# Entry
Amino acid sequence: MTQKPVTTPLSNPPDSYVHIFFLDGVGLGVADPAVNPFATAVLPHLSALFGPTWYVADQALISSDRASLIPTDANLGLSGRPQSATGQAAILTGRNVPELIGEHYGPKPNQPVRDVVQEGSLFQEVVDAGGRAALITPYPQGFFDAIDSGKRILSSVPLAATNAGLALMTADDLRNGRSVSPDFTAQGWHDHLGYTDIPLLTLSQAGERIAHIARDYHFSFFEHWPTDMRGHRGSLDEAVTHLETVDAVIGGLLSAWDDQHGLLIITSDHGNIEDKSHRSHTRNRVPTILLGKNHAQLAPHIHDLTDIATAVRQTVFSQVV
# Structure
């Protein structure tokens, strides 16, 4: 049975908080530089936490003083390749969504996935307890126009946020430092969307800003989808460069993170970028990193994607039943 939090009032500002730094399509793979960009990418911040071969699939939990890395099952007992809609929904609800609907499904949620998300998510649980929650990834006006016209549907993460009554972040939030672009620096908003007045960030500044924004919420979520795109498209060298970009952002995030009060969770919904021998998702376990508050106590209880919600609940709420 899924544990549910006791919805006693939460403190404002939060005494304990959780941020999920979500990287779409990142798995643990083989130590082969011919197929795995992790094997040649220079990742000083992740390597400093867990050693140079942390990205290899066949290993157990790795723990350091500051953080724990848990190889995490994204298959959830079903055959086939895991998909984004069901994987993301499992993370945010703590329920085995592929099992509930009978398949891995994605990238966007079908009606059965939407039905599960609408029954409740971490966003909803925090809101119901009087806490503050946010999806801190912003969207341009064209995205909202496409949703309103019916030409586009929400993916599982913004669906969960809006079902909880949360407003999605906009260009104005990005402009004023309340959100961080999925490309980290906001250069894409200049080059492709025409928002040339939005301030640009360095990679380190982007990570620092995520850490500072997270302090304002009991639960927050940042969604980075280009890792999955680099798995589906592009060259091995481009994937290497992209992973080095992500590590630079993580460096800024770690430098500004409050380990005493905040639990940082870095995780993914399925594998992809770690195997460039093809352009499909993988069945590899995904890396879940817990850093900061009570990471060592929480880490042994994470086995698959549904366990991430329990770690969030045990940190944000004073007790569970």
In short: The radius of gyration is 18 Å. Residues 190 and 196 are 5 Å apart (CA to CA). The mean pLDDT is 95.
